Amino acid sequence: MPAKILVVDDEAAIRRLLRNTLTRAGYAVVEAEDGRQALQQAAVEHPSAVLLDLGLPDRDGLSLIPLLRTHGDAVILVVSARDAVDEKVTALDLGADDFITKPFDSEELLARLRVALRHHGLSETTPKIVRTGDVSIDLDRRVVFRGAEELHLTRKEHDVLAVLARHIGRVVTHQRVLAAAWGGEEDPRVEYLRIVIRNLRQKLEHPGPVGSVIANELGVGYRLRADA
Amino acid sequence: MPVSGDGRPDPDALLRAAAQEGRGRFKVFLGAAPGVGKTFEMLSEGAARRRDGVDVVVGVVETHGRAETQALTRGHEIIARRAIAYEGRTLQEMDLDAILARAPRLVLVDELAHTNAPGSRHPKRYQDVEELLVAGIDVYSTVNIQHVESLNDIVASFTRVRVRETVPDSVLEMAEIEVVDIPPDELIERLRAGKVYLPHEATRALSHFFSKSNLSALRELALRRAAQAVDARMLDDVRALGLGGTWAGSDRIVVAINELPGADTLVRAAKRVADGLRGPWTALFIETPRVANFSDAEHQRVAAAMTLATQLGAAVATVPATDVVAGIQGFLADARATQLVMGKSHRSRWFEFLHGSVVDRVIRDTPGVTVHVLPVAADPRGRDRGRRRPARWGTPAGYVVTTALVASVTGVASALFHILDLGNVALLYLLPVMAAASLYGLRTGLYAGIASSLAYNFFFLPPVGTLSISNPENLVSVVVLLAIAVATSQLTSRVRAQADLAAASARTNATLAGFLRQITSVNDIDVAAQMICDDVRGLLDVQVVLLVPGIGKSLEILAASDAGYHLGTMDTAAATWALDTGMAAGKGSGTLAASEWLFQPLKAGGHVLGVLGVAKDSAADPVRADQLPLLSSLLDQSALVLERLRLEVEMRDVETVRTRDRLRAALLSSVSHDLRTPLTAVIAAADQLEHGATPDLIATIKAEAARLNRFVANLLDMARVEAGALKLNIEPTDLSDAVTGAAHDARRALEGHAVRLDVPPDLPLVYTDPQLLHHCLLNLLDNAGRYGDPGTEIVIEGRHRFGELRLAVMDHGPGLPPGKETEVFETFRRLEGSDRAVGGTGLGLAIVKAFAEAMDMTVEAGNRDDGSGAAFALIFPRGLIVRDLKPESIA
Q: Does B733 touch chain A (CB under 8 A)?
């Protein structure tokens, strides 16, 4: 049975576009045009994922996130034209799995959805080994390989990479990375995180402008890219 | 006031004419005496104007129960008077506010010299009239000649009736004057017939007042005053038109003010001289060391005379000098004065013997100046010598020390008496006398002289042990001791007074200079205002508030010297009055004196910028008379500073508005072009899709839609910059990270170009807003992708050099035309020759610049060193570079 996706958007044109895209990719689609309908559909249809627009006519989409979280375990992807950084952070903090800014690329949307569905609910039982590109991260043994070569990472680099790997494909906010890697220290500062990420990139990536393993979501956090 | 000889209009006269515009016209019916029919005349003319269709109301008319006058008021609309309760009585006063609200064309106001009941807005009715005129209402009013300020003394001198209610000459000078004239015989006839109402208190003096000779004299004064007014008006007209002409303009009149009663008489006399000669005049006060010993009454008389002079149109000057005559002569020479008016005081012959007669010395030593000497009547109540500073009696401690000194000298002298002769003992006694006189002043010095001579007499002069003197020679030494006490104390007290005076004036100058130096360097109006308040508080020991016009008719408090100040409704009214009229109001001024505060206007450039309020904690008069000059200097300087700051703000505002207008125009043209072009392409492509999709149609739609998206994003960004709503989110940022992200997001715009990142991994982090930086880089890359030749390489290069960090985006292409490097950053600017087909919006680089500057970065545009293409650089100055990272925190 195909996974069921709930599309919440007040614009009929966007709903039609998303329905076409998702159906073509083999998903079943249900729609809601406001917050009330969205909660109804979520309760009745038990969708695997919700594509949620924040600008709804009857209520703020942000307020739906905790409600959807408590009444089900659907993946929540925020799809919004709002690109203010603090809204993204709020959405993630409230429990959204990812966000996509309008206008979006259909292929990218599908890729994000796939990753989120694949990893959703697995955070407790994350596989011991996480792979992305030619990099594999063994979380239990704290070793990292690029191809067959073992990489030598510092303690902080390990801590940062581990928290990203546990949420592979999803954005982890600066706060959460800092708490995970510098939690016990007096002065967790973003500048240290920046340096560690730069060093990690040098060790993990092949030189080149495009297609980094660790993606920077400006002002929000980092994401370890999953193979789509 | 000399006029330029080339017949140009005199600016002062033109200014006066301009000030008249928008004001109501003012006409005064001037009478020689009560009963000539001024009110009747005014009402008749008012009625005539009403018949012509003019909107006339009666503000206040005293009919004194006369039937014919009463009859004339009928038919006029009469504004009801306002009742004011005062000390158990109810007084009926003209209702100024009701008239202002009614706003007639012409209002009739009787008795211009009337004094209003306490608690009214203005103490004097002529001030009410002034307010009506300012409001643009024409006013007819009446006044008798003896109420005219400058003629007050003359009238009193022959009628022996002095009226207390006077009208300043300046008020009459604004007015058109019509003399209401009847022959004296007829007036006396009317008086006998009981047709003249006379105020109760005046009846006693009447038989004298209404004598034929008096009435004739009064009549002459009235006619002459009217003629003078006509003269003055003609002169003003002539000057305003620049019609040259001859008049006696070469005379300059100075009146020397003294502290004696009658100083005001001197001022009025000088005014008449000045009017007669039509010359400018100055009231001069010479500040000698004696000023320090003035009683409060004397201080106030000088201040009152100076104020009166200002009201009568004089300039005023206070000149410090040690000698009155020298001071006057110096000033006369500086001012090139030709006439001097001064008073001959009734000083005692003894005083003149000691100090010399000032008048005699001036007349003898001042060639080329006509000296008018007026006898100044001594007012017995004014001789308040007893209220001099108690310090003249010296301090009790002085007497104790002096006694001890005399005793010890006596002790020493008796110890040494066997080796000293009598004359030397007398010399020893000089010591306590000179010490006491120089340290404690005249009285203590005299006491020392007496004590010394008594001791000398008793202990040393034969017969020893008695106070009698056997040898007459020894009497001389006693007298000499006393004389030396007098001489020494006089000398030292004069020296000390001069030093005090010099120190005080040096202190004032130093504080003023310090105030100026500080305040001129300030660029923020709030800081300047606070500084003004604090400095005025420090200098005058008063509470200070600085108020400026707020929104609507409200007042806004800009700064205050103390947090706990209180402004009641009366205070606010006074402040508003000072702001509206540009004249002082509140305690110690002529207007709304019931306020606790004195509000002084801050005037510059012909308008009132705000008001400065001062108040004493102890509800006393806020500013002593001798501090007024200092206060007015402070006010002038403060006003200039506020004016400068205001102008700067205004200029900035004008510049902002101009930029915004230019931008708006450019935006309209850009939006129509840049939105419609891609939309047209998309619509056309979609139309064709109906006939079957082809890959290049879809590519067109995608590309044009992306272009639209970029344009909308830039418009939003620009709107945020323009609205000043740019919220910065500065955080330490890794440039290699930023560049990688931007290159990734701009990959579509960079299609067909190879992109090389040349950003060393050891580049330091920078403080910046990562999102704004991302937008900057996107626009720079977009620009490079569009203007770089197809197939060429685009380089992003980061360098840390000379302390600053430089991030450059370089393309291979035509580059920028030389000299146009800075223009590219202007909004909607596309350099000439750049092809519209390239599809730039002209917004991108302007956004780069605006964002960069918001983050304290700078931008640079130019060509690559080898001339192979354009180079755009973002420069992060030293201060934006992250330092002091602890290595252990990343281990």
A: yes
